[in-house]
Amino acid sequence: MLLKWFRVPKDIVFGEGALEYLSTLKGRKATLVTGGSSMKRFGFLDEAKKQLEKAGMEVSVVDGVEPNPSIETVIRGGQEMAAFNPDWIIAIGGGSALDAAKIMWIYYEYPETKFEDLVNGKFPKLRTKAKFIAIPSTSGTASEITAFSVITDTQNHIKYPLVSYEITPDIALLDPNLPAKMPPHITAHTGMDVMAHALEAYVSTNASSYTDPLALEAIKLVFKQLPTAYTDGNNIQAREDMHNASCIAGMAFTNSSLGIIHSLAHKIGGEFGITHGLANAILMPYIVEYNQKSTDKFTKIENSLGIKNIVEELKALNLKVGIPLTLKEVTEVEITEEKFLEVLDRMSENAFNDPCTLTNPRQSSPEDVKEIYKAAFYGTTAKNI
Predict the structure, then answer these.
(1) Which of 76, 156, 194, 323 is 20 to 30 Å from 214 by CA-CA measure?
(2) What is the pLDDT of residues 98-121, one digit of tens each?
(3) What is the spatial distance between Cα 280 and Cα 303, in angstroms, rounded to a whole number?
(4) Does Oxidoreductase count among this protein's keywords (predicted)?
(5) What letter would DSSP give residue 200?
(6) Comparing C-alpha atoms, which of 100, 104, 99 is closest to residue 79?
(7) Nearest to 284 by CA among 305, 260, 307
């Protein structure tokens, strides 16, 4: 019998001041995992540490997680945890910090783990030493709710999406005060990542009656509130709605999986270092156009939202939040035509082989993927692919 599952963290604590929940935990030691300097700079790392110390815990910090966390970083983090021996691992920061902490958790409990085994879906049984809490500072990846982690092989320029219900956090803490500090461009990129999660969950071949309402609600919230969160970062209602939308979309896609928006974004991110949410945002209209031939669910979205053309609405939303419509217009990294064409075949093959391709509503091929990349680079239509 083929059974399906719907799994999310046991507890989701949300609303302003949710960080205070940390003071109610029971335990001896806790390790905080974070990325760069923003959680320190805005005082959230100190606040989390203070709340844990209120609970009577000794606290260590593993920091320096890079924007695209590497295999080396997660192994280092696991080793640092092993020296401290925490019974709570608490990730605070953007999706990179949360993703990295999940895999550090594995290397803490099982130091001899081979990364290739994780890539192949062979995960050990966790919670032998610690439980896991995720506190997102961005409204985007939904790593606080999901069974996913994306880790980069810097040697081979490949991002690996690792998937196992074992790494679903025990508790997700959603405090909108954290994303309120995000600058506009990060608000835009992470917000469009939410849209990609929700859209792909809704049209996934593994979608269900459990995931569809969540995905649709997240799509509505992003269309409604992302422009406001982008232009008025201090609007706490818009921030809270986007933070909730991220989590709700995460509930959907962690149980339905994704599609080739993410497959292509993972691989172009590995090749050029383009921010994941930005890559998703640019690729999305072209892939929706491509997928429309195989599903009527985009029409259902249009009917539900009262819009006529979802492809044009996605493009309009991108422009509202400062995102270009083509890959060649990206300025955060250089994607020259020469370099793009040089890696195109390899990148297309790798994207086709990404696990997210399996649940895309339209069966694709490396050749189709190559044409989609070209459409997104030059700004041509994907209707004829």
Answers:
(1) 323
(2) 999 999 999 999 999 999 999 999
(3) 24
(4) yes
(5) H
(6) 104
(7) 260
Count H helices, E strands: the chain?
14, 8
- Strands 131-136 and 88-93 come out as parallel
Please give the tally of structural domains in the chain: 2
Say whether both 158 and 28 belong to one domain.
yes
- Over residues 355-382, the mean pLDDT reads 96
| Whole-number Å distance between alpha carbons of 213 and 271 | 35
Same domain as 281, residue 151? no
Residue type, 289: E
Closest CA to 276 of 133, 151, 369: 151
pTM equals 0.88
Q: What is the CATH number of the domain that holds 150?
A: 3.40.50.1970
Shared-domain flag, residues 139 and 268 = no
Domain boundary among 150, 179, 208: 179
Q: Supply the pLDDT for residue 1.
A: 60
DSSP E strand stretches across the chain: 11-14, 29-33, 58-62, 88-93, 131-136, 148-153, 158-163, 171-174
Please name the residue that has the structure tokens 């990179």.
96
pLDDT in tens, 256-303: 999 999 999 999 998 998 999 999 999 999 999 999 999 999 999 999
- Alpha-carbon gap, residue 177 to 173, rounded angstroms: 12
Per DSSP, 18 falls in state G
